[in-house]
Amino acid sequence: MMSERDKPLVGSIFERKPSSSTSAPSVPQLIGSTTGFPTAQHRSKSVFARNREAEQHQFTARSPRSAEPPIVQTASRMQELGPSEKRDSDTDDWRTRMSEENERLVAAMTEEEREEGRREIEEKFGNNIGELLRRARMAREADEKKLKKAATVASLESDLVHPLPDNTIHTPSVPPALRILAPGELSSGALSPPPILSTSSTRPSTPARANRKLRFADVTPNDVHIYESAPPSPRKTPLALPPSSGDDLVVSLGQWKGHAPISIQSSGSSEPHLSAAPLNKDSSVTLPSLTSEGPPEEGTPEDIRRRFFPSLPTGDPSLVWIESTPLPDLTKPSLRFDLNGAPIPPTLSATLPTHLGLHHHAEGARAGYTLDDIFLLVRSTVPAQRAAMLGILARIVRRLARMRHGISRDAEGIEELRGREEELRKRAIAMGAEAMSERGSLGSRAVEVLWEALVGWDEELMDVDGAELQGDPPQVASPDQGGESDVMGDAVSYLPLQFFLPQTATIFGAADLPRLSLVQLLAVLQRLAMHSNAIADAITNSPSLIANLLHVFILTSIPPSEHAPLPVPAAIRLLITLASASRASASKLLDPADALLRFLISPPNSSPYSLSLATTLLTHTLNLYSTFARYGLYAHIATTAREPLTRLSSYIFSLECDSRPLLAAYISLLGAWTTCASDPHQTTPPHEILWSQISGWGWISNLATVARKLKQEHADWGTWAALWNAEAAWLEGARHNGVRGGVEEREGSLARLRPAFAGGAEKEVVLSAITSLKRMLSEIPMGYDSDKSPGFYGEMNESALVLSAVIRLWLACLPLDKKPPPETPFQLPFSLLGMLAIFSVTHPFLSRPSSIPSYTRPLLRPLVSFIANFVLLSRRLPNTTSGLWLAQLSVTLMRFLPGDEDAARDMLDAIIGLVDERCLNDYGWSVPSEVWSRGGLRILAPFLTFDLTPHANGAGSDGEDEEAPRVRVAPLIPTPHSLKLATTQRLPSLSGFSFLFARDWSLLPLDHLLRSGTSPVWRNLPGDWDASETDVVRATLLLARIVRESMLANGTPEFAMTRAEVTFSCMKVFMLEHGQAQGAPSASGEDREEVFRDGAVGELMEALLLPFTLVASSNGLSASATSDEQDNLELAAARFLGSGTPFYQFYTDFVALYDAISFGHPLFSALLLPPLSQNYAPDYRKLLYDDTAHVLGTVRTPVERVIGGAAGGFLWPVENVPQVVGAQLSLLVGRRARVPIEGFVRWMAVHHIAANVWPDLREDPPSSIADERGRKLLEALVNQGEYAVVREVTLYWQRREGRVVLPPVCFDLKPVRRRNRLDWVRFWAKSDLVQRMQGLLGAGDLE
Fold first, then answer.
1. Region Disordered: start and end of each range (predicted)?
2. Residue 706 Cα distances to 719, 720, 799, 806, angstroms
């Protein structure tokens, strides 16, 4: 008998059989009613409660409840089968009968009937029905085998079953193979009762549901045990389950389908029991040991079974879902992220619980989301899930951006994504743009993704102005930064603007996103506008975008209420960026800019906003007006808003205003308006502001008071530069608009400036700026350094601006004549400025602007402006000679950037005016008088300055096609001439960025001559221009020579034209006869002569090429093989020919032209030879030695007159191309050329044939192949060549180092080397060849 504590929680469950007889329905009788109406009842209990009590009373009266339910025992297999097994047996019998019947029917059918039946089945069920039936049969047979095996094991268990007591209820038995011992059995030998929520196998199957009755045992509080639980969700409570019972009987729910085999063991008792055998080492399922004394590891399947299902045996089929699944290979785990975008270590992702929200993906066994999961779930139809994934994506992008910038803390765990940053950035941009139109948190998350991918990606660039950022990502301190870039494409341009901009306008119009999201979207627009001028124009032209933007961020309520949004200064900065992108955008922003007058009406000290916000809004507004003024636009606001501007001026110049940015912005605006007033015809529309107006307003007197507020600290340098530029603009305008050329204005300024620069703060500011700029350039000796901070380059920029402004002010104080002044306007450290200018112009920071990131290029402009202004100042110094100033002008010309066109045109005019007969007499040159009689160098001005000024007519013939307006960058400091011409204020991106002039700028007219049929310069020549093609070539060669000589004489040889550039330019003179530019305009009507035959032209070309010949070059006669990229003709020709025409094609035409018209012209012949150097591809040598060998008979150039860097470049390495070697041999034996070759060509052929024959001249190690080639060449030479040729090849020798050996010394072989060569011939040659060689290499020559 069981004790009171061991009583089972659930007693026996009986299902009563339905009654055999059913009574017919009867009319219900009303009890206790005599009137026919129901008796009134008290409603203290509900109908359901009363019915439930009545049923319980009836059941208790009919069947008294037992306090102890009968024990359920396992019955023998031989007892009566249960209903479930009967159904299985019936199913098998039915299947057997049907199979036999089908076989009989098929056997009785004919072949045609069988085929017809097969076709009908396939039409109805498909062609694969046979395969499906075969698989079903195989599966059924496999199941039958398993049942038979289970029945065999069951027979073994029948001997282990205890005798059944009398009061047990017999139930169908279960195969003992499924009897796995529960944890309670292992410890106490007793089994736990079945769980209260599981279904017993003793339940009979019957359709009579109405008579089912449940009987429960009496349960006391001591019979309930609370099992501790760690549910997947923290919200769930512990589950109440019965404690382990002492009963050793187990009722299983089915067959166990685990991996552990069952064995019969003895556990120390007299009776054996069944247990699971240990798993082998190859099993993919890990189960805790059932014989372990300690508790299983928390979270394992066994731990879950013990906690929640202690009564079920291990491996029960109903618990398959808690079993561990094979883990993925941890050696190559996929990168996963948590909800904060942080990477999850692979070891941790496999152990995190499921309630953290990190398992909502396909691979539920691991916590966290892969990038593929995130990009997939971003497109989810559930908004909350989509928003969560966008939040994760935003944080991942932030980590990627920080990793690119070398922040190691954020790179931990995501190193495998290095190199994929741009790819993931593109995908994030696409995902954010797709979801940005959604409302609520989803739209906010999408905007956050766009902000991280566009703004946060390179947030340090958001303060950059003056350049496009397109196509040139910043250089970052990343260890593996080598290939990132824009090789994969431009990520910012990947944003679909045709979708993004209308959606942005809609979002601003609705303004239903949080304020932070709207500000982030505004920053995204700012970054897009900075990226390229095309995107900025698209933003400006987008319908309703600017209007909605102003409504949200600018046109807020005045005065602002407590909860109303405040104006955002970043919106005005966006307008500045859009206006600086193009003149067209600026013109469209003029009307919206009227809304900014609200910030101009009241000074910051009386503004309804806070002082800092009002000051910032006003500063940005003034900067926008300055941006308009650089185009000559919106200058009328100076008159329209005269009254508020006067109040503003009083505030800014007072001591109450301490904002240096506001002060600098206001002074810069006054300087820009002064420039507009200097020439009112250049404004749009004209005469928007007049000189008389600004003179009457007294701006110059206001500027004079500013200097008293400023100090010499670095924080005031920007304001000093703005002040000096504004005063310089006033003095420059007074020259043209003032009385007597502005004498009174200059005297008034000099009276104040002289004492200030003699010992005031101005002097200290200039000296400090010189020291600062020199120091910072010295800290970057190799040029741009990406490790330097933006503040470093910002200080350099301010230093150069200060020096440029003070020199401009000094020049503005001089009269219009260009004579040296009797006294300097005010004192400056001229010697320090001169040394700094030379140091700056030759510094590598200015040498390779294309290698500088686009966001840094605006910093070059103040430096170039400083150099250009100093060169103009240098002319006014007494010690500057004409030659020195010519060199300074020429060097500065090659440092001008886009936007410096006005200064470049002025310097070209100065160069042309400087080079005259007197200048050439100083050099001791004699120039034909024809050069000066036809206008001198002034005939070159249209060709040199044509690219500096936009023209209406395009390149089409007769001007029928007009080209699109040329992009013209506004200068750093606006000039009256630039107001109408400027189309943008930003430097172009990488694809269009370069210096205005290359080293060979002086030879530009030759390019226009060669393209006279297409060059538009011929349609834009002045009406009085009259020069011939020969005149232009003479003047061009003269200019090129004198410019080069001046640079060499004044210590700037690195700016002089290289050997390759001069050589190619002289080739272009000869190519004028190729038909590319025949019949250049000439009014003389004389018979045209070939230009290269002109005596002056030939003399000038000889003078240009002489320093580059072997005899004149410093290393020209060196035997060492050298290679210099500056001497590469292919590189020199690339700028003129373009990427589509290789230099080899040009050289082929050049050789053909020589063959046609040269008649052995010596200079023409010399220009054929440079590509024969071993530094060029063998195609050039094959063309000349093989394909056109007949022309070499007229090439008689001596070795000393060959154009080249070193003779060794033509000698080594030895020629090894069989075609070229064979052609050289044919030339020597007289088979190719019309006449015997001479000079340099003969020397080259002898050298390479001899070096292929004789082992002592070869470069390669001794080999049978080289010996065989040498033997064949020698035999052919001896058998076919003349004695003189054979002798030269046989006795030729040469050095590899030192000075090259020239003919005839190179044909005098030493006796020792003669004997060695003769021994080599004797080793392999026949007697007749040995005899001939012995005559040459022996004691004497064979006559």
1. 1-121, 191-210, 223-246, 262-309
2. 9, 9, 20, 16
Whether the pLDDT of residue 555 is over 80: the answer is yes
Residue position matching structure tokens 């019309």 = 1234
pTM for the complete prediction?
Answer: 0.74
The partner residues of 969 in beta bridges, in order of sequence, read 984
Query: Are 718 and 663 spatial neighbours (Cβ–Cβ below 8 Å)?
Result: no
Least confident of 371-375, 915-919, 942-946, 962-966: 962-966
For residues 408 and 499, the model is more confident at: 499
Q: Are 371 and 353 in contact (CB under 8 A)?
A: no
Tens-place pLDDT, residues 874-890:
999 988 998 999 999 99
Tokens of residue 890, six digits: 């020429």
Assign 3-class secondary structure to 1137-1168.
Answer: HCCCCCHHHHHHHHHHHHHHHCCCCHHHHHCC
Cα torsion 207, 209, 215, 219 to 10°: value is 120
Q: Pick from 572, 650, 673, 672: which is nearest to 614 by CA?
A: 572
**Whether the predicted pLDDT of 1246 surpasses 70:** yes
Question: Whole-angstrom Cα distance, residue 372 to residue 427?
Answer: 11
Summarised one tens digit per residue, pLDDT across range 575-584 is 999 999 999 9
B/e letters for 424-455, b = 16+ CB within 10 Å, e = fewer, are bbbbbbbbbbbbbbbeebbbbbbbbbbbbbbb
How far is 342 from 368, CA to CA, in rounded Å?
Answer: 10
Q: In this structure, what DSSP letter does residue 454 have?
A: I
The DSSP symbol for 1203 reads: B
DSSP 226-293: EPP---SSTTPPPPEEPPPPSB-----SS----SSPEEEE--SSSS-EEEEPPPPTT-S-----TT-S
CB contact at 8 A, 219 and 231: no
338: its two tokens:
């948590």
Name the residue among 749, 759, 762, 758 with its Cα closest to residue 721.
Answer: 762
pLDDT at position 660 over 70: yes
Distance CA 848, CA 261 (A): 78
Q: Which of 243-252, 387-396, 510-519 has the lowest mean pLDDT?
A: 243-252
| Widest Cα–Cα separation across the chain | 167
Residues contacting residue 481 through CB under 8 Å, at least 6 positions apart: 404, 475
533-to-151, 169, 570, 1036, 1317 alpha-carbon distances in Å? 84, 92, 19, 38, 72
Query: Could you tell me which residue, 307 or 1069, shows the higher pLDDT?
Result: 1069
Per-residue pLDDT at 432: 94
Average pLDDT over residues 1074-1097: 63
Q: Find the range with the poorest average confidence among 79-83, 269-273, 734-738, 1089-1093.
A: 269-273
DSSP 1089-1144: --GGGSHHHHHHHHHHHGGGBTTTSTTTTB-S----GGG-HHHHHHHHH-TTS-HH
Question: Which contiguous run of DSSP H or E holds residue 343?
Answer: strand 343-344
Q: Which residues contact 1010 (CB under 8 A, 6 or more apart)?
A: 1068, 1071, 1072, 1076, 1077
Which burial class, exposed, middle or buried, applies to 1283 when counting CB atoms under 10 A from its CB (0-12, 13-18, 19+)? middle
What SS3 string covers 758-793? Answer: HHCHHHHHHHHHHHHHHHHHHHCCCCCCCCCCHHHH
Q: Give the model's pLDDT for residue 734.
A: 94
For residue 275, report the phi and psi dihedrals to the nearest 5 degrees: -145, 165
Task: Summarize pLDDT for 1170-1214 with one digit per residue, the tens.
Answer: 999 999 999 999 999 999 999 999 999 999 999 999 999 999 999
Q: To which H or E segment does residue 1249 belong? A: helix 1239-1253
Hey, what are 1302's tokens?
């020239």
Tokens of 667: 């002074």
- DSSP codes of every residue in 776-838: HHHH-TTS--TTS-HHHHHHHHHHHHHHHHHHHHHHHTS-SS-SPPSS-SS---HHHHHHHHH
